[in-house]
Every structure is written in C-alpha cells, then in structure tokens.
C-alpha cells in the first residue's frame, strides 16, 4: 500500500502540479511531435524514482512512464471527438491509476482485487448509490404533480437542482455515519441562506413551498437511509 501511495503521489505531482498549461496546449497542437510530451513522461519517471528511492524499482518506473506516454498520446487523438472534455480527462486518469495498481500488485493481482471487493462495506455502497440518482428519481415522482404548477427558471443551470440534491444527501449520509447531527442543521441553514435571496426576488409562494417540500424530502430520504445503515 505504501508503494502504491508513493506512485500515486508521483502521478499527482507530475500530472497536476508540474504540468503547466502551455505544455498541455503544445501537446494538443503537436501531439507526438511535442517535446513537452516526452519531457512530461521523463518527469514522471524521475518523480517515481525520487519518491520510491530504490533502484530496484526502475523497471516499474519504466513501465509506468511508457504506459503514460501511450495513454497520453491516445488521449491527444481521441479527446477532440468528445463534446465534453471531462470524459477523456477522467478516462485518462482512471487508466493511469489502473496501471499503477497493476504494477504494484502484479504478483497477486487477481487475489488482491478479489480481497478488495470482498472487503467492501456493501451496505454503505448501497446507501451511497441510493441517495444519489435513485433518491432523485423517487423525489421527482413524488413531486411530479406539483412540478407542473411551477414556472421553470430558464436562468438556472441544466440539472443543477438534481446535482445539488445528490451532493447534499451524500453530505447528510456522511454526517449521520460520523454521528455529527449538528452538521446537518448547519447544512440546512447554509442552503436556506443561499436560497433566501432567490425566493425573495421571485416573490412566488408556490415556488417557495415547492423548494421547501423538496428540501425536506431530500434530507428526509438521506436521514432515513443513514439511520438504517447505522442500525443495520
């Protein structure tokens, strides 16, 4: 685990802290002809050797550096095909981390992976999944009759309310598991403060009631889920 942590730290430093924007732009424009692509790969190799501080791991460093070159080059060619650049970005990061994992546990990769899955807290995983999209869909069905009577605010970001609800339910679940019930009150208070000006300006009682019911439903579902998990 220590080795994986060091390799991950080297990756984070090399990919984020020590990669200027001009390198990224130059790579996107010149692809395999970009000198910064090769400098970036060499930097990763050097960071791995520096953090591991053991010459016997040079082969692992070489494999990771080579795979980094291949993955980054593939990303440079594939990324323009995606409308959302976040998709190739996250795919790129996942592939890099998978390579690190495979290099560290290559001797017992299958056994270690199986042990990870068997050691998962499956009730917690289920609770996390439930308070995300399933809870949002349930709320949508419960509020369906009311939503038809509310005028849509076209100034809002697409699906912003959905994502805000998912994030707040995840926070509530985390606070319940930690036993920090007072933090839930602070979260409700913070949300109320941010919503106050919008509701005051709209002067729409139906919208106020709709948001209040939605907020209570969202927190209620998360609280019930947390209580069930803690007492299971």
From TrEMBL:
Pfam families associated with the record: DUF3307
Keywords: Membrane, Transmembrane, Transmembrane helix
Listed InterPro entries: Phage_phiKZ_Orf197
Record field: transmembrane: 36-53, 59-78, 90-108, 120-139, 170-190, 210-230
Name of this chain's protein: DUF3307 domain-containing protein
Species, as recorded: Zobellia uliginosa
